[in-house]
Amino acid sequence: MARVLLITNPAAARTRAKSVHTVVDVMRSRGWTVEVVSTGGPGDARRLAAQGVADGMELVAVFGGDGTTMQAAGALVGTDVQLGLIPGGTGNLLAGNLRVPASPARAAETLLAGQVRRLDLGRMEREDGIHYFAVACGAGYDARVMVETPSALKHKWGMAAYVATTFRLLGELRSATHLITIDGKEYEAQAAIVLVANCAEVIPPFVKFGHKISPEDGELDVIVLRADSFRESLSAVWELLRERSRKRSNGGRVCYARGRDIRVETTPVQPVQLDGEPGGWTPFRATVVPGAVRVMVPPA
Questions:
Q1: Residue-wise burial string across 27-39, b where 16 or more C-beta atoms lie within 10 A, e elsewhere
Q2: Does 3-113 carry CATH code 3.40.50.10330?
Q3: Structure pTM?
């Protein structure tokens, strides 16, 4: 009989009490023992997940968004305790990349019938401690969109809130000087966005960073977008979607690289995001943790 810790975030967009009860009922229908706990503030998910590990839980399931999920995942790094995903937030990017159903009931059924994949995570050390990301971190315009999208709008409108902020800020889009160090080799670039990706999709399954990006290859992918206007940003996004710059030796508004240890410095300083959550300001250093966590995913 499996012992499950279900961590819920009451502040997430889609974690109503009725949905929580539905998830618990699905799990208990299999005979699983489920303990439900709720977060009340920053850091709670990691603390609760760590307690779950200490208590011998076999699965820590998170019903919330990417921020809550990654807090909990941080406590599971290097353990054999499995991570379960019940999408309840605004973006749910990791769940989308892994094709976990959006419906809480169907996501819970995935935990019953799914399989386990050991996934890499990105690791970043900030002033308040060590943070992990599963999909991507980055500096520049995308991070500013994350920071300046009000929580109330995210709760009400979901991903549409990010789209609205993106268009509101487009007139202020500008490139900055980035010094990017990848596995000890330095590059200088003028860029509006520098992303460090661990998963392939930024809006699953419609918009991809790149088709060859995988959370199981032991590396991180660096994507640099150069744009200084609305028109140039459209051109850069079109290149990204078509991956045109992968086929060129030079030119284009999108460039790619790959490595295990990435440091990004900027002039002037730029905001930083980790899986859509604010992460302070540049500089930052991201390293890969191969096979960091065991995640339950839908059957192949």
A1: beeeebebebbbb
A2: yes
A3: 0.90
